[in-house]
Each structure stands twice: as structure tokens, then as C-alpha cells.
Amino acid sequence: MDDVEIWVEGNVYDGLLSWADQLEAASKFNVSVACIEGIALKRGILPARYQRNRTMLSCQDQRCLFSSHVAVIGCGGLGGYVIEGLARLGVGHLTVIDPDIFEEHNLNRQLLSSPAVLGCDKVAVAAQRVAEINAAVAVTPVVKAFSAENGLGLLAGAQVVVDALDSIEVRLQLADVCRQLDVPLVHGAIAGWYGHVATQMPEDRSIETLYAQAGAQKGIETKLGNPSFTPAVVAALQVAEVCKVLLDRGELLRHRMLTIDLLDMEFIEIPLG
């Protein structure tokens, strides 16, 4: 056992390592807080920030999440909430991809937006936000539009991909790239009071089934708009699906789509091929 491990084990209370002690250890041994978090989890010690997780997630589960890499395509309405949820959950590496900047019309619903960041790259703001809430999470920000041509390179190394796009055409390209990479895809879409979530494994074609008859390049959100609450609900469900994929636990929304109607408060499951 090296000096860092000895120090970490000597500063545990009730099986937990506080954030203050993580910072102190990182400074004392000139390493990152992510390094300290990894050492703690390897030793069966839970960083105190995750203590409310431990009745449902074991320390080994938390270590699995910390060792995971998730790519989020889109950092807007859905993507901002997804990124926030994954960072707070403790997923250790996030690749966030979006070519856009924040504009004033984003302020009603996009978690990462504020008047102070108007004109800033969405991915840069996402990286800054994650650093503020969980500095043990590494973020790779990519200011690019996802496409069939660059997708294989952008998603290399990701274990799960989250679809937070607003283009049907690009969603279909994303599904194809995920299939080539043998990576699960968690799909979500929103429009007005409504949304849906589905998870596609590499051998499935649920996304193609869902959008087989779609002719528009953009989804119906261009007509219905989006309020503040719909992306939060759908993104939370996407984060839950990502967690289950990474931990191989529970029943995924596979071969089925959960539709959300927040106006009449109805949740309906629809089979997908």
C-alpha cells in the first residue's frame, strides 16, 4: 500500500471520504481529485458525495460508474440535464458534442444556459459546469456537429451514447454509427408537453422503426416548442437508462418506447421492432 492509500484509509469516517479530504489528499500528493476518488473506490471507500446512493448502488457499482465513458450528443434542452445527471451520478468520463453557442431562446429550458454565457460554446459551458459540481469527472468537449463521416472518431471509446439531438436525419446516422461501434444508444426526444425514451442495443433497429415514416429533418418540437419541465423529465429517464446499461441491471426500454404526456399525465409503453 502506498502513501496515498494509507492517507486515504486513515481519513475515512463511516466508510466515507469527505470532499474536503479528497481535496487535501490531491494537494498533498500532487494528484487529481479523480485519482483520489479512484483510489478510494478501489479500496471500498465511498466518496461522501455519493452517500445517498449507497442504499441502491454498492461501492463496486460506484467504481464501475467512475470507470465508465459516456458520450452525449447535444448539449441543449435534453443534453444539459443529461450531463448534469451523469456528473452527479459519478460517471467518470463524459464526451460532450455540440457545434452551437447559447442563444437567448435557450434560456427558458436549457439547464446550462444563463444570460452570462450567451454567445459561449455549449460544450465549454458544459465542461465548466461539470468541473464545478464534480471535479472528479473528466469532460472531453467537442465543438463539432455529429455526422456519419466523423461519428466513428467522435464516439471512439464510449461505452454508451446518449441521443440529445433535434434532427431525425442525424439521429438515424447516430444509430448507424453506434451499431458499427457495437455501443448501446439511449434515445430521447421532446416536444411541448410530450416526450419519449427508448434504448437501442447495437443489434436492434428500434430507432429506424420509430422514424421509418418521418419525412421532416427536424422533429415536431419545431411546431410545439419546449417548456422548462419536459426536457428535465425525459433527460432523467435517459440517465436512469444509462445507469442500468453500465451496471447491467434492471429492465431496459429495449424493443419498446416509453411515451410521456405531461399534459394529461399519462405514461404509455409502445412496442418497437
Silhouette = globular
User: CATH architecture of the largest domain, please?
Assistant: 3-Layer(aba) Sandwich
CATH H-level homologous superfamily name of the largest domain: NAD(P)-binding Rossmann-like Domain
Low-confidence stretches: none
Mean pLDDT: 95
CATH topology of the largest domain: Rossmann fold
SSE-based structural type: alpha/beta
CATH class of the largest domain: Alpha Beta
Give the spatial strand order of the biggest sheet: 5-4-3-6-7-8-9-10
Name the helicity range: 25-40%
The structural domain count equals 2
Number of extended strands? 10
How many helices in DSSP terms?
A: 11
Rg calc:
19 Å
Biggest pleated sheet: 8 strands, mixed
Approximate strand percentage: 15-25%
What order do the SSEs take from the amino end to the carboxyl end, as H and E?
HEHHEHEHEHEHEHEEHHHEE
Distance between the termini: 52 Å
Can you describe what's shown?
By secondary structure, the protein is α/β, with parallel strands linked by helices. The protein folds into two domains: 3-57; 68-271, Rossmann fold (3-Layer(aba) Sandwich), CATH 3.40.50.720. Helices cover 39% and strands 18% of the residues. The chain has helices at 3-9, 19-29, 33-42, 59-66, 77-89, 122-133, 151-154, 168-181, 206-210, 221-224, 229-247, and strands spanning 16-17, 46-47, 69-73, 93-97, 138-142, 160-163, 185-191, 194-200, 256-261, 266-271. The strands form two sheets. The chain has an eight-stranded mixed beta sheet, with helices on both faces. The protein has a two-stranded parallel ribbon with strand order 1-2. Strand 9 and strand 10 form a beta hairpin. Helix 3 runs antiparallel to helix 4 (59-66), helix 5 runs parallel beside helix 6 and helix 5 (77-89) crosses helix 11. The longest helix has 19 residues, at 229-247.
